[in-house]
Amino acid sequence: MDIPSIILSTIGFGGLLFGFSSAGDYGWSSPYVIVPLVIGPISLVSFILRQFQLAQPILEFRVFQNKIFTITTVIGMIVFMGLISSETILPIYMQKMAGFSAFETGIMIMPGALIMGMMSPLTGRIFDKIGARYLAIIGLSIMTITTFMFTNLTANTSLTYLTIVFTIRMLGMSMVMMPVTTAGLNQLPKRLIPHGTAMNNTMRQVAASIGTAILITVMTATQLDTGASTNPNDMIRGVNIAFYVATFLTAVALVLSFYIKRSTPAEDRARVAKTELELEKRKNRYA
After folding, report:
1. Same domain assignment for residues 123 and 202
2. What is the DSSP letter of 55?
3. SS3 call for 100
4. In the chain, which residues have pLDDT < 50?
């Protein structure tokens, strides 16, 4: 284990997370925001450059040389960020602004979680037959529409509306997360698949943490009033603005999904195996 890499990555990712999450409390001009947002990227660049110099890097950034893997990783980051941020913002809205109980909040989230669990084997079978491209396009279209439907929330929005929209959104999400991850990994040679898995998992967790912090900051910064006697709709305005930002990010992921190759997993593995065989033959020829 390379200790300097651990230190640099901790300062880098932690600095970004602290900076973005502090902006809502201290404002963008505060030293508590500016200093971490300057030190964080510098540490991250140092961390990435160091990985290229190590014989056994902690994170192998060479996996991003593959275009499809890069695209699917970015899509996965946006989708995972949308999952975690919505499951953070909606309960805050429901319990602190719209007067729902914790039980009702759980009832709203539960059907979506069940849908994701039930859809996993079905999505896997469809993915084996047609690949990730069409699943991602359909799933992200559903996500974009349903995320946009959360931009018009009020203090009187019904539990039924929230539950149905959230469940449909999770249906779309279930059509994206596993297929795009697998499609990206299938593009890598076998020796890079463990590195690709580690990179994909890391980037999704980082995106969820930093993305949620950014959306919460947007929510708190755009509220019209936060006083004790404020109108709930003044506070809910911040929630709606946060979902506008989430809608934009999901739309970006939708555009990226059109660049995923039209191929099945079997075709991807065959192509990678053929490429590896050709490289091995060249190596033996010049040896």
Report:
1. yes
2. S
3. coil
4. none
